[in-house]
């Protein structure tokens, strides 16, 4: 069993990245738990989901104080993500803790990480393309936002990955005139109810390590508060390439 300070340090670093960029929660923490600490895949996903939910509550409270959350976008995403997450929990409950589920989670996690890489690296070009392409009709944007919620609800429940980078990239395309700070805050706020639902479902199935969860939170809560305060102040290009290359390496390792 690793020393508790290693979990706390991991929570601190990942919480900082989440607060600053909206990326890095499940994308980094779940692979860390599996590859570095040897935690079983479903246990790693369930623990990370509750870790992410509680961590992002603190980030959302701070963002709400600064009035940078677009709540309408959050609620539209929830219309797709929560039903999709609930259906995935029923699927996992049906098969139970089996080698099939462990393999499925590991492969979905690897694919989600590899999808995350271009979402991070090409975000500025996606935003520029979206602005140049013109504004979609409001109803079309709403429908695509609900569909985005369905995709994220499925990915997050099965792998704990997707709400950060993939969600941010899609929101950048759908809402190109909303500032990066507001999109990060909105993405974090949407992740809270989704991660609570998915994490709660995993917990009911016995797939959460509460000791590890507490140790991760000890570091992640101050980490996300610090990262939220520094959001938008550090070079975005450096952040993007560092996280993108790191996730590409981890994604290839998971598959």
TrEMBL record:
The chain crosses the membrane at residues 12-36, 74-92, 104-126, 146-171, 210-231. It is found in: Cell membrane; Membrane. It is a multi-pass membrane protein. Keywords: Cell membrane, Membrane, Transmembrane, Transmembrane helix. One of its GO terms (cellular component) is plasma membrane. It holds the Pfam family TauE. It comes from the Bacteria. InterPro entries: TM_pro_TauE-like, TSUP/Inactive_protease-like. Belongs to the 4-toluene sulfonate uptake permease (TSUP) (TC 2.A.102) family. PANTHER family: MEMBRANE TRANSPORTER PROTEIN MJ0441-RELATED (PTHR43701), MEMBRANE TRANSPORTER PROTEIN YJNA-RELATED (PTHR43701:SF2). This is Probable membrane transporter protein.
